Amino acid sequence: MLSWRRKKSRAPHKELEIPRHFLCPISLDLMKDPVTLCSGITYDRESIEAWLEHGNFTCPVTNQPLRSFDQIPNHSLRKMIQDWCVENRKHGIQRIPTPRIPVTSEEVSEILFAIWDSNRRLDQCGCLHSLHKIKKWCTESERNRRCILSNDETPGVLAAAFDAFATDSFEIERNANVLEEILCVLNWMFPLSKEAQLHLGSQASLRCMVWFLKHCKDISVKQNSMIALQELLSCDHKYVQELAGIDGVNEMLFKFIKDPVCPSIITKASLMVIFYMVSANDKIKSEFVEMGLVSLLLETIVESERSVCERALGVVDQLCDSKQGREVAYNNALAMPVLVKKILRVSDLATEYSVSTIWKLCKYENRYEQGVLIEALQVGAFQKLLLLIQVGCGDKTKEKATELLKLLNPYKAGLECIDSVDFKSLKRSF
Q: Residue 296 above 60 pLDDT?
């Protein structure tokens, strides 16, 4: 009897098998939302929609052309799958939730019309109700989100509503709730259409987003506003002048870099907004230099993460296009050690910006030229540039690196490369 029990206890544990008709023929996973095609074969909705979206017009199992793309929910099979899950809970199987009915393109059109109508009447409650419905649809499934985005009118209608409510009153607080919700929904619809850009780039809309960045305590609203500004300026530089004309914008952006807020995405977006602004306008470039942005960014670059470092180096490179920017960089003991260190240490983009900035510093100012070249040699620029050309880089970067090597070569004899670990303790040699 004892030996029989031992043999029984050693019997291998039988693995739980899922009934074959519960598995999707495409993914071979347990179906969560079974739907039947006109061919009579049942698939999981997510799998068959992906199949159709990739341009397939046949039934995956029978390979017959589909006369209709209608997907009929198979409620009986779904109920059987749910009952099977409940019966096998002891095996760790969780019951699949009853799927919600996916949104249709007609419903999206109706909700957009409702938003347009609320916008026309400046009806906050009606607009908020429609926006909450859109957000609810998006949280239910990725398929709903794709359906909403597939309507080309969606970004334009939402941006027009934002413009209308922003223009309605000089007291933005009055419409703050509806404006925040519109901005939240718009943030996952980038890139924007031309029509949406025009509405979001209006003076009233820009002032509203700047107001949110200055006065709103909700971090998510600040984040949505900054990302929207980044998107807008990346599409067209004509919005730079409009944004720069708003009082306190430059100071506000500077503060976001000086006193970063969590999440860091706000800092990254701020850097990109500054990058687009200084790239498009010399006056703005001069204002940021006078505020001390060059020195602030050099300190930021020392220990920053990759994406922040790339953006900061890009802004420094743009600021060094101006004589005023280069003056500040020459007089900052961190400049050359930081720029040289970042070559081949962060990314190709960071290397490109670093080489470009060093090239500008070494090439354009005769008054400091010898001292800059000597300092570059002391922190290892010559070796880094040689290695860069050997491992490969873009044509423009290679051209600048080659020219820098020619400039550095006459001063190379007798100079030793020093280890640039503690940047703040370095002093200039001249």
A: yes
Burial class (CB in 10 A: 0-12, 13-18, 19+), 48: buried
Residue 73 β-bridge partners = 35
List the beta bridge partners of residue 65. Answer: 58
Highest mean pLDDT, choosing among 9-13, 208-212, 237-241: 208-212
Distance CA 393, CA 401 (A): 10
Q: Where are the beta strands (DSSP E) in 225-310?
A: none
Q: At what angle do helices 249-258 and 282-291 cross, to 10 degrees?
A: 50
Chain segment 111-163, per-residue pLDDT in tens: 999 999 999 999 999 999 999 999 999 888 888 898 999 999 999 999 999 99
pLDDT-above-70 percentage for the chain? 91
Hunting for tokens 């006193």 — which residue is that?
259
User: Which of 238, 150, 147, 164 is closest to 194 using CA atoms?
Assistant: 238
What was the pLDDT predicted at 315?
A: 97
**Both tokens of residue 427?**
């002093």
pTM above 0.70, yes or no: yes
CA 15 to centroid of chain Cα atoms = 44
Instruction: Say if residues 212 and 219 touch (Cβ distance below 8 Å).
Output: no
- Pairwise CA distance, residues 25 & 41, whole Å: 9
Tokens of 182: 């519109």
Radius of gyration for the chain, computed over Cα atoms and rounded to the nearest angstrom: 30
Residue 106: count other Cβ atoms within 10 Å of its Cβ: 8
List all residues 6 or more positions away from 194 whose beta carbon is below 8 Å from its beta carbon. none
Q: Which long-range contacts (CB under 8 A, 24 or more apart) does 198-203 make?
A: 198/159, 199/156, 199/159, 199/160, 199/162, 199/163, 200/159, 200/162, 200/163, 200/228, 200/232, 201/232, 201/236, 201/238, 201/239, 201/242, 202/163, 202/166, 202/167, 203/242
Q: How far apart are the C-alpha atoms of 151 and 263, rounded to whole Å?
A: 31
pLDDT tens string 167-211: 986 678 889 999 999 999 999 889 889 999 999 999 999 999 999
> Which tokens in the block code for residue 18?
């899922």
CA neighbor of 291 nearest in space, from 320, 250, 330, 242: 250
**Cα(282)–Cα(297) distance, integer angstroms:** 18
Contact 277, 316 (CB under 8 A): no
SS3 34: strand
